[in-house]
Design brief:
mainly alpha, 10 helices
Length: 188
């Protein structure tokens, strides 16, 4: 029985190996809100005279929206499919992150920009990616989930370094745009 399960798992990987890899890259975008913001804190404090809590208020807004809207994202994925939800989410979260570079210094403006990130985050939660994997993997589902869910830890290593380099080269406004648009290009 174990040999048959192993063979079935191998067959799933041969047929659908791109799905966990795509999910890994897509799921990595959720790291934008938590790991991508850190290199921008000091430049935003300097540009707008804000303190750290004002800069990080956006993360709180995005997280709160996630708590409120997560159920709806799962329901939406059940209705229209994970692929449509995930692609929409990737576009929303990365473009919203890029738009942080348009911040005016108004607290309301900053929070509204982060609301877009919060909506995008809900649409790229693990629920969306694991639903897609569960539709194709049965015998190797755990391994496929493991591959997909490594996206965020990998991004947590790459994002701060990449964002800092872009910010050093192009300023904080260009850094936001660069991170968002590069992440979108890779994810799609």
């Amino acid at each position: 029985m174990k040999i048959a399960n192993k063979q079935a798992g191998n067959a799933e990987w041969r047929a659908y190996w791109t799905l966990p890899l795509a999910a890994m890259i897509g799921y990595s975008s959720i790291a934008l809100q938590s790991y991508g913001i850190s290199p921008f804190v000091a430049p935003l404090e300097k540009a707008f005279g804000w303190d750290r809590s004002q800069v990080m208020a956006g993360v709180t807004i995005a997280t709160l929206l996630g708590v409120i809207l997560n159920f709806f994202a799962g329901t939406l994925a059940d209705r229209i499919g994970s692929r449509a939800v995930a692609i929409t989410g990737l576009i929303v979260i990365t473009c919203s992150f890029a738009l942080l570079g348009t911040a005016t210094g108004s607290s309301l403006n900053w929070k509204l920009l982060w609301a877009g990130i919060g909506i995008g985050t809900v649409l790229v939660q693990s629920t969306i990616w694991t639903r897609a994997i569960a539709s194709r993997f049965d015998h190797a589902r755990g391994t496929a989930f493991a591959v997909a869910l490594t996206g965020t830890p990998i991004a947590s290593m790459i994002l701060p370094v990449g964002a800092a380099a872009l910010t050093d080269a192009y300023g904080w406004r260009g850094g936001f745009a660069g991170v968002g648009l590069l992440w979108l290009a890779v994810a799609l």
